[in-house]
Amino acid sequence: MGRGSGIREVAWIDIAGGGQVVLDGNYAYVGHMQPPHGTSILDVSDPAHPRVVASIDIPPGLHSHKVRVASDVMVANRERTRGEKPADDFVGLRIFDVSRPGNPRDICHWQCAGMGVHRFTFDGRYAYISTEQEGYVGTIVMILDLKDPTRPEEVGRWWMEGQWTAGGETPSWKAKNHRCHHPIRRGDRLYVSYWYGGGVILVISGMSKPKLVSHLAWSPPFGWPTHSLVPIDVPIAGHRWMLVADEHVQPLDPKLSPELPAALWMVNITDETRPVPVGCFQLPELVGIETPLMTTCHQPVETIVGNEVPAAWFANGLRVIDIANPLSMKQAAWWMPDVPAGAQRVCSNDVFVDHRGLIYLIDRNRGLSILERVQGRGIR
Questions:
Q1: Residue 230 has pLDDT above 90, yes or no
Q2: Which overall architecture, per CATH, does domain 3-373 show?
Q3: Do 94 and 78 form a contact (C-beta atoms < 8 A)?
Q4: For residue 161, with 0-12 CB atoms within 10 Å meaning exposed, 13-18 middle and 19 or more buried, which class applies?
Q5: 190 and 261 in contact (C-beta within 8 Å)?
Q6: Can you tell me the distance from the alpha carbon of 97 to that of 303, in angstroms, rounded to the nearest whole number?
Q7: Beta-carbon contacts of residue 380 (< 8 Å; ≥ 6 apart)
Q8: Which residue in 362, 311, 372 sits closest to 29, CA to CA?
Q9: Where do the domains of the chain lie?
Q10: pLDDT above 90 (res 288)
């Protein structure tokens, strides 16, 4: 059943562990972490009784842990997993017609180089992807036009100077430390986390030539990779803001800020050419101590329209953060699912809020929780 404060469990469904959950109408789409499970589609029209209506498998050596849906089109990634040789060599994106969610129809395979596609977003026309390409070091930003989803076309790309080795550039960092991790679009801006390269804001009014607006470079002094840049869609105190999520995985240098586990940062972007970090949130009991990796911050919801932000907090489940005062964020509610069978601890990986205000929390090991905010103003 789990436990928490300010949160009620509506349902829990026993499915394979996932990397992402998204909703489109009354259907939930889960991208799974490990083969043979690729993508599951669930009918959640009755959220107390969710049911799987379709499952798509994936061969060994690959995973399909990210998924997006818009305009009856579902896009899922295909990425090599480390340490295994895939059963086939197709990596990139797999595209489906989901006009009938219970009967997804495979309509296109888009192939790329290297490990494949890691993360991406999709607005119904364009996909903004993190992909490896020949001649580049690490993943870059690429924009695909899916006007005809059976024939995606590249319309633009952007990379950090130093990545294009085939063009004579030389990286100033080690290996693939600076790489596109997660692009999120708002209007004509793309907010892109760049791992140990921090994050960038790009203007994409000209899709073919994205241009840099600003670069938030902060590793060092901070040691954790940047997972997501999430713009807040409403002003707070007359200013514009974005949340920046660290990821609690391998630090750039163990000597960098070991006493501050990966956190959720508030950044003022009123002047977007000069992002200004003003504070961060971390669970008080975790500050000043070293913790096992994958214990703290991972991913907030990607659409923020109010003062409460649900966030997946790895081994600490779901945390709902009150951002009404950007200089002093605080916890408003929390939920800890039960530890899944066969796992040593919880590993909450992603979170989504549907049109009813229900919260969907996917565990990396096993299980999908459907939750409801029951105290305070709620999240919508």
A1: yes
A2: 7 Propeller (2.130)
A3: yes
A4: exposed
A5: no
A6: 25
A7: 305, 306, 353, 357
A8: 362
A9: 3-373
A10: no
**3-state SS record for the chain:** CCEEECEEEEEEEEEECEEEEEEECCEEEEEECCCCEEEEEEECCCCCCCEEEEEEECCCCEEECCEEEECCEEEEEEEECCCCCCCCCCCEEEEEECCCCCCCEEEEEEECCCCEEEEEEECCCEEEEEECCCCCCCCEEEEEECCCCCCCEEEEEECCCCCCHHHCCCCCCCCCCEEEEEEEEECCEEEEEEECCCEEEEECCCCCCCEEEEEECCCCCCCCCEEEEEEECCCECCECEEEEEECCCCCCCCCCCCCCCCCEEEEECCCCCCCEEEEEECCHHHCCCCCCCCCCCCEECCCECCCEEEEECECCCEEEEECCCCCCCEEEEEEECCCCCCCCCCCEEEEEECCCCCEEEEECCEEEEEEEECCCCCCC
Which two three-digit tokens encode residue 105?
């129809």
The answer to which of 101-105, 259-263, 349-353, 358-362 has the lowest mean pLDDT is: 259-263
Four-residue CA torsion sign, 309, 312, 315, 317? positive
Q: How far is the C-alpha of 23 from the C-alpha of 29, rounded, in Å?
A: 6
The strand pair at 126-131 and 117-122 is best described as antiparallel
Q: Sheet containing 3-5: which strands, arranged edge to edge? A: 3-5, 330-336, 318-322, 308-312, 299-300
Q: Tokens 């829990």 identify what position?
A: 12
Is a pLDDT exceeding 80 seen at residue 75?
yes
* Residue that has been written with the tokens 């002003």 in this structure: 235
d(C-alpha 146, C-alpha 185), whole Å: 15
Asked if residue 109 lies in contact with residue 128, where contact means CB atoms within 8 angstroms, the answer is no
Exposure letters 326-358 (e unless 16+ CB within 10 A, then b): beebebbbbbbbbbbeeeeebbbbbbbbbeeeb
Q: Looking at the predicted structure, is the pLDDT value of residue 377 above 50?
A: no
Mean pLDDT, rounded, for 75-94: 82
Residue type, 221: P
Q: pLDDT tens-digit profile of 254-266?
A: 777 666 778 999 9
